[in-house]
Amino acid sequence: MTRITRRATLALASLGLASGPAFAQQFPSRTITIIVPFAAGGPTDTVARLVAEATGRDLGRTVVVENVGGAGGTLGAARVAQARPDGYTLLLHHIGMATAPTLYRRLPYDPVGGFETIGLVTEVPMTLVAKKDFPANTLAEAVAVIKREGDRLNYANAGIGAASHLCGLLLQKAVDTSMTTVPFRGTGPAMQELLSGRIDLMCDQTTNTTEQINAGAIKVLAVTTPERVGSLPNVPTSAEAGLPGFEVTVWHGLYAPKGTPPEIQQRLSKALQAALRDPRLVQRFAELGTAPVAQDRATPEAHRRFWQADIAKWRPIIQAAGQYAD
Ligand code: MLT
Questions:
Q1: Mean per-residue pLDDT for 166-185?
Q2: Domains and CATH numbers, the chain
Q3: What average pLDDT does this structure show over 194-210?
Q4: Could you tell me which residues are beta bridge partners of residue 251?
Q5: Which residues have a Cβ under 8 Å from the Cβ of 56 and sit 6 or more positions away?
Q6: From the CB of 163, is ligand 1 less than 6 Å away?
Q7: Is the pLDDT assigned to residue 7 strictly greater than 90?
Q8: How large a percentage of the chain has pLDDT more than 70?
Q9: Of ligand 1's atoms, which has the minimum distance to the CA of residue 43?
């Protein structure tokens, strides 16, 4: 590419006007930002930082993470939906992308049409955890405490539509008892309050709870997956522990703003697939109770189909609960 063409391409790119093969050949020519729609230190942040490191190795560019928490992840999602579609601002978000279209009826962005899918990343088990001195050591004992104490118990979540919120909905429905919900900008900060004993219970992903459980800093009552989790082999599933139907697995996907040039989407998808094969990422995911999805699920097309199906799955569940965010 001649120097003039390159300069013109970069100038157009800076105006968000570039596209086509010439622009794609230059991509990435600067740092990429992955927006995480929850506070730092939580499970989404953990997944994003591992993906950022590994995709950066494939792209040959720095990929940074910026936390934009609030409103169950919709503030961060809005930031990306409204960003320049040039491949330099991405979103790493989870199952909240499937629930927000039903839960939030007045969003300042299109929760489905505002994004291009880059690919599915991982599916993370959840754990029901309690503060260290919670008066129960099994799920059955905890159900009895919840039934007895009800809204005298503090249950933490990361806002309406967050995985911790959905898990809490299913738990309180299964136990037919409401607790007092305390919202945070992410389950990273919420974990600090659980460790301090000011929060009694929380559903959170193994990427945030495994190390605290293994350190004995919090109690674990069940995993919310159909099968036991390899990194927590002694923890029963919710079904084994007497609460069948209390099951949530939190998938995470990578997105770009609608209108991102197809060549850029494909380059980002290639980087994501390389990241999911990266031994350092695979090892760290395993230590935290999860694993990259298979390569054929980490494509833009496969993730869009999966995402649409999950929107359709959660819509009647949310409508039946009749609890909306706005
Ligand atoms: C987080 O990263 O803070 C969690 O994913 C929030 C949630 O969805 O519970």
A1: 94
A2: 31-124+250-321 (3.40.190.150), 125-223 (3.40.190.10)
A3: 97
A4: 123
A5: 32, 62, 63
A6: yes
A7: no
A8: 93
A9: 2
- Ligand 1 within 6 A of CB of 164: yes
Pocket test for ligand 1, best of 34, 97, 164 (most atoms within 8 A of CB): 164
Nearest ligand 1 atom, CA 69: 3
Tens of pLDDT, residues 14-31: 555 555 666 667 899 999
pLDDT of residue 11: 56
Q: How many percent of the chain have pLDDT more than 90? A: 86
- The finding on whether 76 has its CB within 6 A of some atom of ligand 1 is no
Does ligand 1 lie within 6 Å of residue 191's CB atom? no
Structure confidence at residue 260 (pLDDT): 97
Give the residue, by CA position, lying nearest to ligand 1 atom 3.
Answer: 186
CA–centroid distance, 186 to ligand 1, in Å, is 5
* Tokens 């998808």 sit on residue: 269
CB-count exposure of residue 106 (10 Å: 0-12, 13-18, 19+) = exposed
Q: Is 70 in the pocket of ligand 1 (CB under 6 A)?
A: no
What pLDDT band is residue 1 in, cutting at 50, 70 and 90? Answer: very low
pLDDT value of position 57: 97
Which residue blocks in the chain are alpha helix, DSSP H? 3-14, 20-26, 43-59, 74-81, 96-103, 139-149, 163-175, 187-196, 206-214, 262-275, 279-287, 300-321
H/E element, 63: strand 63-67
CA distance 23 to 13: 7
Q: How many residues does the chain have?
A: 326
The distance in angstroms from the start CA to the end CA of the chain is: 51
